Predict the structure.
Amino acid sequence: MEEVNAMTTAASIHPQTEVGLLALSVADLDRSIDFYTGVIGLQVLERDEDEAVLGAGGRPLLVLEERSGAGAWPRGGQSYTGLYHFALLLPTRADLGRWVDHYIQLGLPLGQGDHLVSEALYLEDPDGHGIEIYRDRPRSEWTWENGRVRMAADPVDIRGMIAEARAEGRPFEGLPAGTKLGHMHLQVGDIGDAERFYHDILGFDVVARMPSALFISAGGYHHHIGANTWHSRGAGSAPDGSVNLRFYTIVLPSEEARRAVLDRVEAAGIPTRRIGEAVAVDDPWGNTIVFEVGGAASGSEARSLHRALSG
């Protein structure tokens, strides 16, 4: 049964808030473009010598910035705070089936998880950045208990998903229009600090919590941001010589909705930076969050934002 998160309050972030765009540094831009176009199925919207914007259906989703010689993101054992994975949300189960059918033919490793609210597949890019590609089940099939959404990590019915895609008789031709950045999952140093920043100050609602992980959202979604300490408890940010998360955007539907968030940020004494029409804030681990109204509608707008933040 569908239920709006019972923990929603007057201080909650606007229910139409979403994640919009992210920027990553990579060691070799050509290698990364080959991966994100050939393996993932994104399209290059704009690029120059050391920067590219990729998306689906003309919608910008990912900015890549080359930092030649940068070390890969560490996996396993004690790590740094920063990106755990970013998640691309596909419009339908058949769309996900077409993608996984394509991916399996490449013979590359793949993780999976049926989370009850969604079916998700996991992989890494050549620099070790984590990626989730998923589809949501209808909200009417989600189960809520006392304001918390029920999730799991069961096996995905990959054969059934591929069969559904093949029944439509359409080949994989890249990620379809309607694909978007569904959520961000971060490695943080402390779950309590993450809740204080993302819930108490920014206003995201807590939808699931455990000692080592936190999931928060706007408008009763299963999560727009995840945070965990599985490999990063007490850790700091990655050294300058590593690839990393440059920034990600939170898109609000109006200036009034953004102002409500920024009023809480400023009341907490957290510095903000005006970047053209956008406003940037750092979380407790130095991850840069950019608050936008409406979001970047083109590759040019995404590049302008990235350049302003990098300047």
User: Anything to note?
Assistant: The mean pLDDT is 94. The two ends are 48 Å apart (CA to CA). The chain has six helices and 18 strands.
